[in-house]
Design a protein that fits this description.
The chain has a five-stranded mixed beta sheet. Helix 1 packs across helix 2. It is globular. By secondary structure, the protein is of the alpha+beta class. Strand 4, helix 3 and strand 5 form a beta-alpha-beta unit. It has one domain: Gcn5-related N-acetyltransferase (GNAT) (Aminopeptidase, 3-Layer(aba) Sandwich).
Length: about 150
């Protein structure tokens, strides 16, 4: 299958992306609520949020970011009915081309320890495991006070 890969359009794709992410990622933490993540990404406005379409249905997504130094892959999701058909790899290659066009020299990503299926996906797409310690800190004032509306105006 050769999906059409294009930039996310909030008015056309939002509900489908939210459904897909809930199905694939589950989301238990407030800071990962799909509505909030989409709203924050659109507010940032870097245009690095892409979807794969099959007959107008969202079958995959990739959200990426670039800070002028490194590119970051934040998440790839492919509908279970479309997995193992190269859609995730196509989305990844699309984001890599966008990074290259921006002058990006290196792409980073993080996966949860023990997620061997996802690790093997990235290894098959020429990524290497690097020894790093990943650290994080949540800023609850930017999670709890952010309206999680339907984002129709976002």
């Amino acid at each position: 299958m050769n999906p059409i890969i294009t930039t996310f359009d909030n008015r056309l794709h939002r509900d489908q992306v939210i459904s897909l992410w809930k199905e694939i990622f589950g989301y238990e933490a407030d800071h990962n609520a799909p509505q909030l993540v989409i709203n924050k990404k659109l507010e940032f406005g870097d245009g690095l949020f892409f979807i794969a379409l099959n007959n107008q249905a969202v079958v995959g997504t990739i959200m990426a970011g670039y800070d002028g130094h490194r590119g970051w892959i934040y998440s790839i999701a492919v509908s279970p009915n479309y997995q193992k058909q190269g859609i995730g790899s196509s989305l990844l290659a699309f984001a890599e081309r966008k990074f290259s066009e921006l002058g990006c020299m290196k792409i980073n990503l993080q996966i949860m320890e023990g997620n061997e299926v996802v690790e093997n996906f990235y290894l098959a797409n020429e990524y290497q495991t690097e020894k790093r310690i990943s650290m994080g800190k949540r800023l609850p004032e930017n999670i709890n006070n952010t309206e999680q509306n339907d984002g129709a105006d976002a």
